[in-house]
Structure formats: structure tokens, C-alpha cells
């Protein structure tokens, strides 16, 4: 079963988040990339020129990132990461929509299984520890939402309090999210 953290981040919140992950040696990969692509080290500068809505944060020191080529569609020949055997976190970024509302993002990882059906060992324990670092980071300085289930970055929470920003759940008819207390 995958572990998921849902959040709202403005660019300054995203920089702080990536700065907190930098000591753990993660690398960033797009969801789909050409052969020969090397991951970029994760730190706050990785956002410069990054226009991806979603990407993978890989912990390559724990094991190889398993990829396979796409055989059909417009991205034929490009590579895609296999989440189950790879030590990766999938990062969907918060984005401003056309109406000036911040649409929520999420970070999720499969932490309990491996690609080998006969194995009961699961993923490396260190991947779970990286995910726990993420959860501690959010609990430390981020605000909770009303209704429950979302973390709101300090920059986004301040903008909501000042009336400059509205938060919206992703999806066609996503409901509005508020800052708790």
C-alpha cells in the first residue's frame, strides 16, 4: 500500500521543502525522459527552470532506478520509471490554476513491496526513513487544513489568511480547502 502526503505549496514553500530533502542525497527525474538522462541532485536550486507538474525523487544510493521504454503513444521511445522496484517518491507539485487558485499536490511512495513475488523483505528501510523525514517536516512548521488531510505551507497559509489566495482540491469539481484555526 502506498503512503501519501497531500499539501499546498507556494514556490517559497517548495524551496524550503527541497532544502530539507537536500541532505538525503535524492535526485530528480521527470516522469518521462529520453534515454541517457541523468537525475539532477535535489536542492532548492533544482526549481530554477523546472516546469514539470510531476516528477520522481529517487534515492539512488538504496538501489537502481528501474526504467522501461514506452512502446506506444506520443512519447514512444522515451523512458518511464517503474515505481514498485525503484526506490522513488512520486512528487506532484501544487500549481496555480487559471482562476488564481492553488491546486493541491501530493507526495507518495510504495514502501512495503518489491518486484519479486517470492520476496517478503519489502523496500529498503532507509526509503521509509526518508518518507518519515518528509512527514516530520510537514508536522513541524506547516498548517493543517479544514477539512482534514492536507498540509498547507507557511507561505500559502499566510496568503490565504490575507485573502490573496484560495486553495482547491485537485480534480474536476475539487472542493475548497481552508486553513484550520
Q: If you had to describe this structure to a student in words, what would you say it looks like?
A:
The structure is a single chain. This protein has 181 residues and is of the alpha+beta class. The chain has one domain (2-179). 20% of the residues lie in helices and 30% in strands. It is built from 3 helices and 15 strands. A 12-stranded mixed beta sheet has the order 4-2-5-8-11-1-13-12-15-14-10-9. It has a 3-stranded antiparallel beta sheet with strand order 3-7-6, with no helix packed on it. A hairpin with a 7-residue loop joins strand 14 (166-168) and strand 15 (176-179). The two termini are 32 Å apart.
Give a concise summary.
By secondary structure, the chain is α+β, with helices and mostly antiparallel strands.
Compute the average pLDDT: 90
Strand order of the largest sheet: 4-2-5-8-11-1-13-12-15-14-10-9
Report the strand count: 15
Q: Encode the helix/strand succession as letters.
A: EHEEEEEEEEEEHEEHEE
Approximate shape: globular
Could you say which structural class the secondary elements and strand pairing correspond to?
Answer: alpha+beta
**Low-confidence residue ranges:** none
Kindly state the percentage of residues in helix: 10-25%
**Between the first and last Cα atoms, what is the distance in angstroms?**
32 Å
Round the Cα radius of gyration to an integer and report it: 17 Å
- Integer tally of domains: 1
Outline the biggest β-sheet.
12 strands, mixed
The number of distinct helices, counting runs of at least 4 residues, comes to: 3
Beta-strand content estimate: 25-35%
Amino acid at each position: 500500500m502506498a503512503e501519501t502526503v497531500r499539501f499546498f505549496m507556494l514556490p517559497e514553500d517548495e524551496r524550503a521543502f527541497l532544502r530539507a530533502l537536500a541532505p538525503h542525497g535524492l535526485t530528480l527525474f521527470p516522469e518521462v525522459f529520453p534515454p541517457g538522462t541523468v537525475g539532477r541532485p535535489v536542492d532548492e536550486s533544482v526549481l530554477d527552470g523546472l516546469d514539470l507538474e510531476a516528477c520522481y525523487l529517487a534515492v539512488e544510493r538504496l538501489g537502481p532506478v528501474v526504467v522501461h521504454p514506452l512502446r506506444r503513444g506520443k512519447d514512444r521511445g522515451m523512458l518511464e520509471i517503474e515505481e514498485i522496484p525503484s526506490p522513488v517518491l512520486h512528487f506532484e507539485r501544487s500549481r496555480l490554476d487559471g482562476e488564481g487558485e492553488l491546486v493541491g499536490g501530493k507526495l507518495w511512495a510504495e514502501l512495503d513491496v518489491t518486484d519479486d513475488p517470492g520476496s517478503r523483505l519489502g523496500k529498503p528501510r532507509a526509503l521509509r526513513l526518508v518518507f518519515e523525514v518528509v512527514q516530520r517536516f510537514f508536522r513541524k512548521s506547516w498548517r493543517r487544513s479544514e477539512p482534514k488531510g492536507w498540509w498547507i505551507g507557511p507561505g500559502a497559509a499566510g496568503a490565504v489568511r490575507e485573502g490573496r489566495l484560495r486553495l482547491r482540491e485537485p480534480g474536476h469539481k475539487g472542493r475548497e480547502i481552508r486553513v484550520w484555526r
